[in-house]
Write a structure and sequence with these properties.
Low-confidence stretches: none
CATH class of the largest domain: Mainly Beta
Mean pLDDT: 89
Number of strands: 16
Distance between the termini: 39 Å
Strand order of the largest sheet: 11-7-8-9-13-5-4-15
CATH architecture of the largest domain: Distorted Sandwich
Largest sheet: 8 strands, antiparallel
Radius of gyration: 19 Å
Number of helices: 3
Number of domains: 2
Helix content: 10-25%
CATH superfamily of the largest domain: Glucose Permease (Domain IIA)
């Protein structure tokens, strides 16, 4: 297991503060502050983890772009299938590409910071839209900030080629990720399911192969 580079400042800064407090300070309060700094560094070490996984392989599969708990599976007004996932602070927070294809755009949308599991969060909160296109259609991974997540980070840009399971971004602290994809897939997950980025199969092509 490795640590994503975006997490290094969150780990090293409080760790350095803890050490400096112990070296140059004294007394119960200083020790207490040092302990708080150390615990925060330990939490960030856990939060920004990047565990080794084996990417699920198979023809016509759409993989989960994130770790978390499925909130909703539905069809939107445009006829697309939408799967919404809530990420708690205990979930791995990096995102992976659900399909292979070309990154058509990365669009930042400013907004609010409601709790990520609130009904309106996916509409009004700050978010990044990563749009990926292949021969089967267009897939949009929406990174959505939450009350604690104050930054959505994209590691890809327009024109990049990605393979299924490639790392494409990170959301710092609790958040939500939505996947919008063409209709016509056999959805394999439901509300309440725990999913793993690059491992859990969200959907597969139906036997007739029809994608809208």
């Amino acid at each position: 297991m490795t640590i994503v580079k975006d997490g290094h400042p969150f780990i090293l800064a409080p760790l350095a503060a803890a050490i400096l407090l112990l070296i140059f300070g004294s007394g119960f309060f200083i020790v207490f502050l040092s302990l708080i700094c150390f615990l925060f560094a330990a939490f960030c070490l856990f939060f920004f983890r990047d565990p080794d996984i084996k990417i699920t392989e198979g023809e016509g599969l759409i993989l989960s772009p994130c770790n978390g708990t499925v909130m909703e599976v539905r069809e939107n007004d445009n006829g697309q299938s939408v799967i919404r996932v809530f990420l708690s602070v205990f979930d791995v927070h990096l995102q992976r590409s659900p399909v292979s294809g070309i990154v058509k755009s990365v669009e930042y949308r400013p907004g609010k910071f409601l709790k990520a599991n609130e009904a309106e969060a996916h509409i009004v909160n700050e978010q990044n839209w990563i749009t990926i296109e292949n021969e089967k259609g267009i897939y949009v991974v929406k990174q959505i900030a939450g009350i604690l997540a104050r930054r959505c980070v994209s590691w890809v840009k327009q024109g990049d080629t990605v393979k299924t399971g490639d790392k494409i971004g990170l959301i710092k602290f609790s958040s939500q990720v939505d996947l919008h994809m063409p209709a016509g897939y056999d959805i394999k997950v439901k509300a309440g399911d725990k999913v793993v980025s690059g491992v859990t199969v969200f959907a597969s092509i139906l036997k007739n192969g029809e994608i809208k």
